[in-house]
Amino acid sequence: MLNLIWVLFFFSAFITALFKLVFLGDQQVFAQIMAAMFSLSKTAFEISLGLTGVLALWLGIMKIGERSGFMQLLTQALTPLFSRLMPDVPANHPALAAIVMNISANALGLDNAATPLGIKAMKELQTLNPTPDTASNAQILFLVINTSAVTLFPITIFTYRAQLGAANPTDVFIPILIATYMSTMIGLLAVASVQKINLLDKVIFSYLAGFTLFVAGILSYFAQLSQEQMLIQSALISNVILFSLVIAFISGAVYQRINAYDAFIEGAKEGFQTAITIIPYLVAMLVAIGVFRASGALELIIDLIRYAVHLFGFDTRFIDALPTALMKPFTGSGARAMMVDTMQLHGADSFAGRLSSIVQGSTETTFYVLAVYFGSVGIKNIRHAAACGIIADFAGIVAAIFIAYWFFG
Question: What is the pTM of this model?
């Protein structure tokens, strides 16, 4: 899928540029495309280089959290919920532990740990699957929860926002929390309706009610504030929560008699390696998006959507962040590159820049997760997995747009 999208960017750019040259007489369009290729390859490297310090910092902190037992605490807290949501999985089966560990890693922003844990969970669930080439109910539920991305600590987004000049990189934390809650709940409801899961079961209902009350409390608090106060309070609360988590991680390490400094150094080394690893991916996607934009193809699509929205009398500012939303279900690196492109073009603190950040944090990459997780166990018949995942994606994107207008509009 990623290969198809990448190739289409270049072919679409070439066809659009050829049309502009032959029929519109634009003799500069190919020069602009080549300039974009060289410029954005340099930009991608500079962004990756700038990310090194911030990634090292946050992955170091998250390694302390991992070592101090916070992953295990989350596992213990969430196991009762998933044992009810997946009745076909025995109570003490290793799949449950792997599932909760994966979701905990995603929630804390430990992407490197989350994927191998997710594959392990899928393989454990496959041992219970009576039809190995067809996704089981438990596997579909697990995948949809992954694609809806319960994100409590979106490190990568904060990192890019900091690198691209945001005055307060974490001011999107509360909006992301609300948007990811909406995508997760809608995704869960979609699966529950197909699989006939009783969400009124007292254990399930208690967990969902607790999550809902928490988010409702946030909404009710911000609803009574003016937009100026909302921005101030959102930034303050976000920073207090995030730094409190850092202190909690370090405190846990001290209590467990773990060398927090050594854990930080180990995680920081991973951050350095991660920054190096993403260079070719960022170059590939930013260059592809750059030639697509320089040819005028992206502008044409966006203008058509803007015109349609304008006909209905709606505000069109959200259109500038739509490339991230349209890319998100298909490719995480592509959506990330679109987010970076939007923040570069309009500014990290622009409405479009903030909205693209919220969209990026609201859901995961449905088709990538589907391909990796189901592919790891040889599943060919995915049943309702893709449909429910797309429903969750759509809910997260719509929620992100409304929340962005509420907080930053």
Answer: 0.75
Beta-carbon contacts of residue 94 (< 8 Å; ≥ 6 apart) = 124
The alpha carbon dihedral of 362, 368, 372, 373 has a sign of positive
DSSP 168: S
Exposed / middle / buried, residue 140 (Cβ in 10 Å: 0-12, 13-18, 19+):
buried
- Report pLDDT digits (tens) over 23-70: 999 999 999 999 999 988 888 787 777 768 877 887 788 788 878 887
Q: Give CA–CA dist 44/278, Å, rounded.
A: 9
User: Residue 366: its pLDDT value, please?
Assistant: 79
- Asked if 40 and 244 count as a contact pair (C-beta separation under 8 A), the reply is no
Residues 365, 331 contacting (CB under 8 angstroms): yes
Give Cα 273 distance to the centre of its chain.
21
Record the tokens describing residue 163, joined without a space: 């690198």
Per-domain residue ranges of the chain: 2-408
3-state helix, strand, coil in the chain (%, to 5): 80, 0, 20
**Pick from 365, 361, 371: nearest CA to 389:** 365
Q: What is the pLDDT of residues 331-362, one digit of tens each?
A: 676 788 889 989 999 999 999 999 999 999 88
| Exposure letters 237-267 (e unless 16+ CB within 10 A, then b) | bbeeebeebeeebbebbeeeebebeebbebb
The answer to whether the Cα torsion of 349, 353, 357, 359 is positive or negative is positive
SS3 134: strand
Q: Do 151 and 173 meet the contact criterion of CB atoms below 8 Å apart?
A: no
* Residue 381 backbone phi and psi in degrees, to 5: -95, 105
Q: Report pLDDT digits (tens) over 90-147.
A: 877 888 877 877 776 677 665 555 666 777 888 889 999 999 999 999 999 999 988 8
User: Which residues does residue 134 pair with via DSSP β-bridges, in sequence order?
Assistant: 381
- What pLDDT is recorded for position 98? 76
**d(C-alpha 349, C-alpha 167), whole Å:** 7
Q: How many CA atoms lie within 13 A of 331 on its CB side?
A: 19
